[in-house]
Amino acid sequence: MELVSVVIPTRYRRELLMRAIESVMQQTYSNIEVWVVVDGDDLDTMAYLRNIGKTRFPVYYVKTNGIGGSAARNLGVEKASGKWIAFLDDDDAFLPDKIACQWEQLRYDLDDFHLCFCPVLTNSLKNPDVFLPMRTLDLNTESLTVAEFLFCKKGRRTLGFIQTSTLFGTRDLFREIPFTEGLLKHQDWDLLLRMAQHGVKFHQLEEPKTRFYRHHAPSVGNTNAWKFSDVWIKRMEISKLARDYFTLSIILRGVAKDVSLTRAEKRSHFKQKIGALTWQKGHYFQFSRLIFVNFARIYL
Fold first, then answer.
1. GO molecular-function annotation terms (predicted)?
2. DSSP bridge partners of 120
3. Which parts of the chain fold into alpha helices (H)?
4. Domain range annotation of the chain
5. Number of alpha helices (DSSP H) and beta strands (DSSP E) in the chain
6. Using one digit for the tens of pLDDT, what is the confidence trace for 25-72?
7. Which of these, 24, 123, 157, 293, is most buried using a 10 Å CB contact count?
8. Is the CATH number of domain 4-220 3.90.550.10?
9. Is 115 exposed, middle or buried (0-12, 13-18, 19+ CB in 10 A)?
10. What is the DSSP letter of 195?
C-alpha cells in the first residue's frame, strides 16, 4: 500500500485536534502518516504533540508564525512524504474506511489530475450528538459543472457540498494546484473551481466517509465579507447560472447582514444585483424564492 499523508492545520483547539487524530488512527488503511501544522503560537497544542507518545501511525508537526489556513495546508503538503494527501480540518473526523475507499477509487488512474471527495455526516446545533447524511446530488451522474454543483439550489439546499475534510488526491496534484494563500474566505471553493478549470476529474463516493461537525465556534466560513466575495466570484471562470446563484445566496445575504450599511445603501445594492441577473428556464421559481427572501431581509 502506498503512503497516505493526512494534513491537519490547527490552532487553539487541542481537544478537537485529539479527536481528529484519533479518527486517523482508526483507519482500516494501514500505511499513513499525519502532519499537523500548528498555525501560530499555541503552547497547549504544542505540549500535546511533543508528548503524544507512541501511536499507530507517526504524527509529525510543524509550527508557523500564523500564515493562515491555506498556506498551512500547502506547507503540510510540502512536508508530507506520501504519494497521496488527505486533508482533515481539526474539528472534523474520518469514518474508519474513509482513506481506504478513496485510495481504491483513485489507485488505478494513470495521471494526477483526479480528485476524490465524499458526502458527509453532519449534526445540528440543536442535536450535536445526532449525525445524519447531508443530502446531495451525485456529481458523477448529473450534467452539472462543479460550480453549479456547489452554488445552485433546489429548495433551501445547494445541489452539492464538497468539504475540505473529504478531499483526497495525489501530492503532485496539490503541489501543482495548491490552495490560494491570503484569501479572506472561500479557500475550499477557490481550490475546487481552479481544479475544475484545469481539467481535474472529480470522483464522488456514494456513502459519507467524514463527520462534519457544526458548532458555535467562529470560523472563516461564517465571516461576513460580501465585498470580498463579490470581487472573488468575478475572477472565477464559471457559468452565469452558478454566478447568479452565488449572488443571490451569498452576496445579497451578506449585504442584508452588513450593519455598516444604511437601509438605503442595502436597497441600492439589492436593486443593482437583481438587475444583473439572467433568468434561465427551469430556475424561475428558485430565483424568485431567493429574491423574496433577500427582499424581506433588506426591506422589511
1. transferase activity
2. 210
3. 14-25, 43-50, 69-79, 98-106, 146-151, 171-176, 187-197, 226-235, 240-246, 252-257, 263-275, 284-299
4. 4-220, 224-299
5. 12, 13
6. 999 999 999 999 999 999 999 999 999 999 999 999 999 999 999 999
7. 24
8. yes
9. buried
10. H
